[in-house]
Amino acid sequence: MLKKNLNKLALLLGVVLFASCSEDDSIDKSDNSAGEETSVYITDSPVDQANVKAVFITVSEVKLNGKAIEGFQKSTIEISSLTKGNTEMLGKLNLDAGTTSSIELVLADSDDNNNAPGNYLVTKGGTKQELSGATQIQLNDQVEIIEGTKNDIVLDFDLRKSIKQEGDQYTFVSGGKLQNSLRAVNTSNAGILKGNVENTSDANAESVIAYAYKKGEFNDSEKEGDQGVRFNNAVSSSVVSESNGDFEIHFLEEGDYEMYFASYSDDDQDGKLEFSGLVNAEAIGGLDLNGVSVEANTTVNLEITFKGILDL
C-alpha cells in the first residue's frame, strides 16, 4: 500500500512540476515577443550646399515610445551617403500596434572612437567643421506600427533642412527647426517617385533640386526660406542629375503630392548656391505635376521637360 501511495505522490508531483514549467515557458515567451517586431533605419535627403563633401552624425541612442533600442552602441554614420533609398539599420525592438507617441534621436558630442566632434561635415577643400547645436531631437512626426506584420521604420534625416550656412561656418538649425528636419515612415505605407528631365540645361543652373510637397501645402513664402533654408515644408527632395536628368525620392507616404523644381547657381563664387528661381516644368504625357498620386509599395515614374525659369 505504501509503495502504491508513493507512486501516486510521485506522479502527482510530476504533473505539478510539468504544469509549472509550462506556465513559466509561456510567460517567458510572452515577455520576449510582446508587441510587433520593428526594425529602425536611417536615411538622408541630400544636402544642397555646394561646398559640402560629406556629413557625419554620431547616434548614441534611439527611442520609440520611450523604449530604447536594446544593445544599441554609439555609431558614427556618414549620413550624406544614405540617399536614393539607401539606409543604415539602427536596430530592432518590439512595439505595440498603433501610432507611436514619441520618437527620439540622441546625437553624441564625440564619435564612436570617443574623439570630438561627433557631428561634423567635411568641405570639398578637406576642412572638418563641427556641427554644433541641439543633440537631443524629439521628432514632431509619428508613425503607425501595424499589427501582425514586421514593421520597417525609416527615419529620414533631411540634411538640406537641418544645416544652415553663415559665411564659411555651418551649424545645425535651431531646436524646433531641427525637429522638423526629421520624419518617420513605415515602409509598408510608402512608395517611390522617380523621374527624368530630358533637358536640364534649360534650367540655366549649376544645380536643380526636385521638391515633393503634400498637395496644397506649397505657397510662395517657401521660396524665401527661414534660417537660410528654403522650401522648408517640402516632404523630401532630390538633386536632379546633371549628367542624365534622373532624380528619385524614396519613402513617400501614400497620398497626393505636388512637384516643384528650383534652380541654383553660385553666382558670386562664394561656395554657396544662390536660389535663381523656380523652373517652369511640365510632365510629358499630360500628367499634372500638382497632383501626383503615390501609392504604397509602388513606384511612380515621371518624364519632365523644362521650359526656362519662372522667377526672372
UniProtKB/TrEMBL annotation:
<dbReference type="InterPro" id="IPR025491">
    <property type="entry name" value="DUF4382"/>
</dbReference>
<dbReference type="Pfam" id="PF14321">
    <property type="entry name" value="DUF4382"/>
</dbReference>
<protein>
    <recommendedName>
        <fullName>DUF4382 domain-containing protein</fullName>
    </recommendedName>
</protein>
<feature type="domain" description="DUF4382">
    <location>
        <begin position="39"/>
        <end position="171"/>
    </location>
</feature>
<feature type="signal peptide">
    <location>
        <begin position="1"/>
        <end position="19"/>
    </location>
</feature>
<keyword id="KW-0732">Signal</keyword>
